Every structure is written in structure tokens, then in C-alpha cells.
């Protein structure tokens, strides 16, 4: 990579990790978002999907959101005002991103484990997405904790694929978000989560080095270190914060500018509280070597979808869903600075404007 190209990508990475901002992960595939829409009583068609996503892209989220990951369908769509979604975002200083992997596939010889599809066509697609206005991209690997998983083969294959993807993305002038997700499904405890996370992250970083990926133009999107969803022993936000920071310190070079956590099945409130605890502890311990922020999907969207459906049915005031989108983004922006205070927007009802309620958490809004 030429020095000029590297400098440009690092500038994008710096914008994505700006203090007090995070990333909206609105890159659900047609099938995934369809399940949520159908559960809410809506049809899964392009017009409905576009109208729903417009609630976020035109909600005035630029005060709290630095980038939005789009699905390939959305990257080419226009708003109801016939403004390209890419322009809706950039006018708010929100960088458009794109999901580039093609989903999971069974990993040969490893029952129940997966690798990720899409490397064969990745370069051509990345170049096309860049021409459409994307500035960064995301590739997801998923590893499951069980009695004998993840296997060493699964760890190695997924780490290598993530590094290959990152190198291709940077060659196509896109900042890569590397997502080695440790699935929350299972009954493992926080110690097992720590051990597996450390092994997975170390393998990923090693492969990034081997593939000559510019770490200063790369972001990491992991799950916070916590017990599995079915574990008998739960962990406090403080325990999650300590375990997560311990693993990051052991594995992630300070050259990587940002760790943008995924919410991975957490509730909206849990995701915010855990993120806030991580940042509070990092500040206390003077160990905030990276931006510690968010790249949430459902944890930024669940309440917005409910309100949007209510608006369509005439059971909520027009604009309330956009207000909620802005408020939840602001709550997580505050958490990324260790400045969150409750109650969470998702459990607030009535009263003052949600946007005004959470405006005070950011001094520059």
C-alpha cells in the first residue's frame, strides 16, 4: 500500500473512532431483516425495508454516529425524498460502509463450525462498492464455544479469512472492520469466554501481521467478554468490563485505533450499560489504548422498529421512531465516553422529547 493510500485510510479510521461516536450496523441481510419485519406484522419487501431503514439514515444521528454499515441493497437506494441514502448519511458527516461477506458456510471436518463465504469475488465487489460511495466495510466470522469448540482449525481458518479480507479491502481503498464474533449461545462461564476470546484475537492479529494489513487503518468488532446466555452464573457489568479489558490488553496492539463492540444478543439496555462500564473502568485504570465504542445492530434498532410500526398503525405520533433512533444512539455515544446515566431510552415512556432528554450527554450537540 502506497503512503498516500495508507494515510487516507487512516484518516477514515480516525473519523470512525471519533470520541463520543459509534457505528450503526444496519447491514442485516434480506432474510434476517425479513424475520424482524414479519414478526412485527410487516411484509418483507424492498419498499418496506427501505422505508424502515430511512428512519435511521434521516434521523439526525450524526452527533452520535460516525459510520453506518449498509447492506448491498441499501447502498443503491434513495430516500422518500429521492436523495441517495449515501448522501443522506454524508450530509450528517456519517461515513457509509458496506457488509461484504456472503454469510457463513459449514467448515469441512468441523461439525457445527463455520467459515465465511465471499473471498473469491471480494476484490471486484469492493471496488464496485467504493465507486458507489462506501468508505469502509465489514466481514464477520462466527465461532461457537462448546465442549470441544472452537477447534484450532476453525480459529485458524477464520483468522486467515479475516486477514485476507482486510488486505483486499485496504487495497480497494476501504477501511476493514474485522469481526471475529464469539457467539453468546451456550452455558460457558466468563473464564471460558476469556480464554477463547484471547486465543481467537491473538490468532486474528497474527494473521493481520502476516498479510501486511495496516493496523492503523483497521478496526476490530468483537463481542464483549461475558458468560454464555445459558450460563447459570451471570456476570456483573463490572466483571464484564474487567474481563474484556484484560483480554484486549493481552491481545490487541495499540496501533489498532478502535474496538467497536457488537451487541450480539444483548438487550438494548444491557449493551449500553456494559459499554459504559468498560469505558469507566478503562478511564480509571488509564488503559484506554483504543477507542472503545460500539457497532450495534439490534441494540440500536429494536425499540425504533416497535415505534415505527406503531406510527404506521396510527398508534404513535409521527416522528417518534426517529426520535428514539437519535436518543438510543446518543445514549451509546455517552457510554463510549463512560458518561452514561439512566434511564435508558428504550424504557423511557412519555414526557419530554427523547432527543432533548439525552442531548445533555454530549457537550458538542
Q: Indicate how many domains the architecture comprises.
A: 1
Question: Which shape, going by the Cα principal axes?
Answer: globular
Which stretches are poorly predicted, pLDDT < 50 over at least 5 residues? 350-365
How far apart lie the N and C ends?
37 Å
Query: What is the CATH homology-level superfamily?
Result: Aldolase class I
Family: Belongs to the class I fructose-bisphosphate aldolase family.
Keywords: Glycolysis, Lyase
Pfam family, one: Glycolytic
Catalytic activity: beta-D-fructose 1,6-bisphosphate = D-glyceraldehyde 3-phosphate + dihydroxyacetone phosphate
List the helices and strands and how they pair.
Layout: H1 3-16, E1 22-26, H2 30-39, H3 46-57, E2 65-70, H4 72-75, H5 85-90, E3 95-99, E4 104-106, E5 114-116, H6 122-131, E6 136-143, H7 152-171, E7 175-182, H8 190-210, E8 219-220, H9 237-251, E9 258-261, H10 268-284, E10 291-296, H11 298-312, H12 320-335, H13 354-359
Parallel strand pairs: 1-2, 1-10, 2-3, 3-6, 6-7, 7-8, 8-9, 9-10
Antiparallel strand pairs: 4-5
Amino acid at each position: 500500500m502506497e503512503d498516500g493510500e495508507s494515510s487516507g485510510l487512516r484518516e477514515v479510521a480516525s473519523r470512525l473512532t471519533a470520541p463520543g461516536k459509534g457505528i450503526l450496523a444496519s447491514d442485516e441481510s434480506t432474510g434476517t431483516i425479513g424475520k424482524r419485519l414479519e414478526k412485527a406484522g410487516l411484509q418483507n419487501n424492498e419498499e418496506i425495508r427501505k422505508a424502515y431503514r430511512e428512519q435511521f439514515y434521516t434521523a439526525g444521528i450524526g452527533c452520535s454516529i460516525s459510520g453506518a454499515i449498509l447492506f448491498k441493497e441499501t447502498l443503491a437506494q434513495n430516500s422518500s425524498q429521492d436523495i441517495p441514502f449515501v448522501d443522506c448519511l454524508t450530509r450528517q458527516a456519517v461515513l457509509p460502509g458496506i457488509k461484504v461477506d456472503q454469510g457463513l458456510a459449514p467448515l469441512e471436518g468441523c461439525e457445527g463450525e463455520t467459515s465465511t463465504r465471499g473471498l473469491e469475488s471480494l476484490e471486484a465487489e469492493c471496488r464496485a462498492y467504493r465507486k458507489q460511495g462506501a468508505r469502509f466495510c465489514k466481514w464477520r466470522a462466527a465461532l461457537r464455544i462448546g465442549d470441544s469448540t472452537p477447534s484450532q482449525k476453525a480459529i485458524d481458518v477464520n483468522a486467515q479469512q479475516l486477514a485476507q479480507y482486510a488486505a483486499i479491502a485496504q487495497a480497494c481503498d476501504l477501511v476493514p472492520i474485522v469481526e471475529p464474533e464469539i457467539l453468546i449461545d451456550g452455558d460457558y462461564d466468563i473464564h471460558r469466554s476469556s480464554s477463547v476470546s484471547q486465543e481467537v484475537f491473538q490468532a486474528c492479529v497474527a494473521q493481520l501481521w502476516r498479510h501486511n494489513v495496516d493496523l492503523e487503518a483497521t478496526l476490530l468488532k468483537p463481542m464483549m467478554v461475558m458468560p454464555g446466555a445459558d450460563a447459570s452464573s451471570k456476570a456483573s457489568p463490572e466483571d464484564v468490563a474487567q474481563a474484556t479489558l484484560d483480554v484486549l490488553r493481552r491481545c490487541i496492539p495499540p496501533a489498532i485505533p478502535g474496538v467497536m463492540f457488537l451487541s450480539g444478543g444483548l438487550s438494548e439496555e444491557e449493551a449500553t450499560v456494559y459499554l459504559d462500564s468498560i469505558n469507566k473502568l478503562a478511564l480509571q485504570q488509564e488503559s484506554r489504548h483504543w477507542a472503545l465504542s460500539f457497532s450495534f445492530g439490534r441494540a440500536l434498532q429494536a425499540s425504533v422498529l416497535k415505534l415505527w410500526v406503531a406510527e404506521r398503525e396510527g398508534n404513535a405520533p409521527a416522528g417518534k421512531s426517529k426520535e428514539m433512533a437519535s436518543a438510543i444512539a446518543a445514549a451509546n455515544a455517552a457510554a463510549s465516553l463512560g458518561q452514561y446515566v439512566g434511564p435508558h431510552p428504550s424504557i423511557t415512556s412519555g414526557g419530554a422529547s427523547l432527543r432533548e432528554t439525552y442531548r445533555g450527554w454530549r457537550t458538542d450537540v
